[in-house]
Amino acid sequence: MMLLYSVVSGNSDFINMGLAGIFLGAIVLTIKGQEYVKRSTLSLTLRAYHESLRRIVEDLELEGNALYIPPYENLPKGGLFIPLRKDFDIDPGRFGEDIVFLTNVGSERQMGLLLRSPGLELLEKFEEHLEGEITSVGEVESASSSVLKALNLAKGVYIEESEEGFEIYVEPQDIAFCRRNISSCNQLACPICSSILLALAKGSKQIIESEEFSITGKRIRIKARKLGGVREWM
After folding, report:
1. How many CB atoms lie within 10 A of CB 169?
2. What is the SS3 assignment for 217?
3. Three-class HEC string of 37-51
4. DSSP label at residue 183
5. Could you tell me the pTM of the whole model?
6. Nearest Cα to Cα of residue 193 among 46, 94, 82, 85
7. How far is CA 67 from the centre of its chain?
8. Rounded-to-integer distance, Cα 158 and Cα 171, Å
9. CB atoms near residue 178 (< 10 Å)
C-alpha cells in the first residue's frame, strides 16, 4: 500500500521506503536460510516487489532500458533511471534524491522515472565483505560472488569486460523466478542482478545501460553497455 500511495502522491521517500521494505523482507528471509524459510517464500516476496514496480513502469508507458547511475554529488549512493523513450537523453544535473518523476526537463527524451536501486542493500553487503568501497570491476566480480553465495542467492557471478560494456553471467538459486520475469529484466531487474549492475556502475565510474537479459542453461546472461561518466552527460 505504501508503494502505491507514493506513486499517486509523487513522494520519493515513500516510494523508496516501499521498495526497500519489500526487498528487505526478502533479504531477512534469505539470511535466515533454508533451514527456517522455504525458498518459495523468498520467491513470492521478490515477486511482489517485481510486480509492484512493473505496474508502475507499464502505467507510465516507459520505453527505455534501465540506466544504473554511479554515485556523484546529486546521488551520493547512485541510482536507477528508466527513460521514457528508447532514444533517450539524460541530464544528471537535474537528478536528485528527492526526485522520482523527471518531467521538468528541456526535452521529452530526458523524462523518466528515477529510483533508488533495489540492489543498493546488497551492494552495501559487497562493500562490507571488501571492508571498503568498490573501486574496480574485479572487486565487483569477487565480492558479488562471495556475498551472493553466502546468502544462498546465487551460485556464482562471472563478468567479462570489453571497451563497449560487460557480459555478466549469474547462476541464481531460483532460476524458475528468472524464467517467469526475464522479459522485463532489462527495465526491472531483481535486487540480485540490480546489485551487480549498480556495483559495476560504481566500480567503472560509468552510467551502465542494461541492454539484454537471457537464459543460458542454468545461468542468466546480461549484456550491459557503458555510456560514459556522469560528467560527460552534463
Report:
1. 15
2. coil
3. CCHHHHHHHHHHHHH
4. G
5. 0.83
6. 46
7. 9
8. 9
9. 20
- Nearest-10 Cα torsion for 204, 78, 91, 190: 90
Length of the chain: 234
Query: Where in the chain does DSSP place strands (E)?
Result: 67-69, 79-83, 101-102, 112-115, 154-161, 165-172, 208-216, 219-226
User: Over the range 20-49, which residues count as b (16 or more CB within 10 Å of their CB) and which as e?
Assistant: bebbebbbebbeeeeeeeebeebbebbbeb
pLDDT digits (tens, 9 = 90+) for 2-30: 333 343 344 444 444 444 444 444 444 44
Least confident of 1-15, 157-171, 194-208: 1-15
More confident residue, 205 or 32: 205
In sequence order, what are the beta bridge partners of 141? Answer: none
Output Rg (C-alpha) for the chain, integer angstroms.
Answer: 17
C-beta separation of 68 from 78 below 8 A = yes
H or E element, residue 176: helix 175-181
Of 106, 6, 67, 30, which Cα lies nearest the Cα of 229? 67
- Inter-residue contact 198 to 71 (CB < 8 Å): no
Residue type present at position 32? K
Quickly state the pLDDT bin for 102 (edges 50, 70, 90). Answer: confident
